[in-house]
Write a structure and sequence with these properties.
- The chain is mostly helical.
- Helices cover 62% and strands 9% of the residues.
- The protein has a three-stranded antiparallel β-sheet with strand order 1-2-3, covered by helices on one side.
- α1 runs antiparallel to α3.
- It is elongated, with a radius of gyration of 28 Å.
- The two termini are 37 Å apart.
Length: 160
């Protein structure tokens, strides 16, 4: 960058960093909107399971709370209390597991978002070069930097 160049211009160090920051903020805004939509969708969702003999149906909400137990026949009246309890427990656990799968699927779409945002803000960007002089002024910086280099070297050993 020439000495007469504007550091705040589009091609200057600060201009480049500003563009990276804007991109990261836009990515964060998009992810926030997706998270809010997923949260609203999950809040309105439920899971329903019916017993094999079609005697009873259990419905649970997104946090596993029981929303409904519907008995379709009177056959439950002939079951022993322990047998009915076991049937209801199994049915509710199955409905909760089904709801849990829905939650996991909704969350899967956000895997790696934190890493992506962290890298866009700090990893290998002009921001790192800009902040390096400030970091070097911090007490214990030399020891800290050497420690980080050693840690990074050890981590690289395990990546191969």
């Amino acid at each position: 960058m020439p000495a007469t160049a504007d550091p705040f211009g589009p091609d200057g160090l600060f201009g480049s960093m500003s563009a990276e920051f804007e991109q990261a903020m836009e990515a964060l805004r998009v992810q926030k909107e997706k998270a809010e939509a997923a949260q609203a969708e999950l809040a309105a969702s439920s899971a329903t399971v019916t017993s094999k003999d079609r005697m009873v149906t259990a419905k649970v909400g997104p946090q596993g709370q029981v929303l409904a137990l519907t008995f379709h026949t009177t056959a439950y009246q002939e079951l022993a209390p322990a047998q009915l309890g076991s049937l209801l427990t199994d049915l509710l656990n199955e409905a909760r597991a089904k709801m849990g799968e829905q939650v996991v699927q909704a969350i899967k779409g956000f895997e790696g978002v934190g890493e992506m945002l962290r890298m866009s803000m700090t990893g290998g960007s002009d921001l790192d070069r800009l902040l390096e002089p400030l970091r070097s002024m911090r007490p214990g910086y030399g020891a800290d930097a050497e420690s980080q280099r050693r840690r990074a070297g050890r981590q690289e050993e395990f990546r191969e």
